[in-house]
Amino acid sequence: MSAIDPADPSPLLAARGLAYARNEEPIFGPLDFSLGAGEVVLIEGDNGSGKTTLLKVLSGLLEPTAGEVLLNGVHLTLAKLSHQVALLGHLPGMKFELTTLQNLRFAVGLGGIRPGITPTIALASVGLAGYEDQPLRLLSAGQKKRVALARLLLVPAALWLLDEPYANLDREGIELVNRLLLMHAQRGGAALITSHGAYAYTSGTPRRIALRPQATAQITAEARA
Asked: Which of 80, 93, 161, 207 could form a disulfide with 60 if both were Cys (CB 3.0 to 4.6 A apart)?
């Protein structure tokens, strides 16, 4: 599914009483928040505060201990296979023995493709033109991250869940992430980004979800630095 209509007032994502515990030990929650089209929201917290776990719950990879997640008003267990969510984790989630182009074509075969783009165009958009036939295993950590960002450009997902997207990137790579986020928001998408505190996205007035270990998150609005 392509990005939703930016004029639609209903939230793209809604969490209601969302909580997660591991071995009966609370990790986060309960949380109540929503995310609308065109929004980029920062999830902050120290190690162990549950940032990565929250993204996995929101993507449908983990079942919440309590509460529910709605995507465009549909319960997550029904919507998670609709390709509305794209998760970028700490690991690239790609085959190291395949070339960059083969990896992107594989992603398209699984999740479909956004109109107006091709795997070759996506690679060029992240600064990897000429790397189409390069095996992923031969790339640097920063280049692998760029291939993962190219995959984001391809898939028709309205919601991006990005776990430390600036990791392993130089200054130019950080600016690339910011441009992609801005483009995604402008076409009606939305994104949640995890961070240990420092972040580079500076467009608009992003809200923050501050996670603390075994504590309820506090959601605040913060002006651009």
From this structure: 80
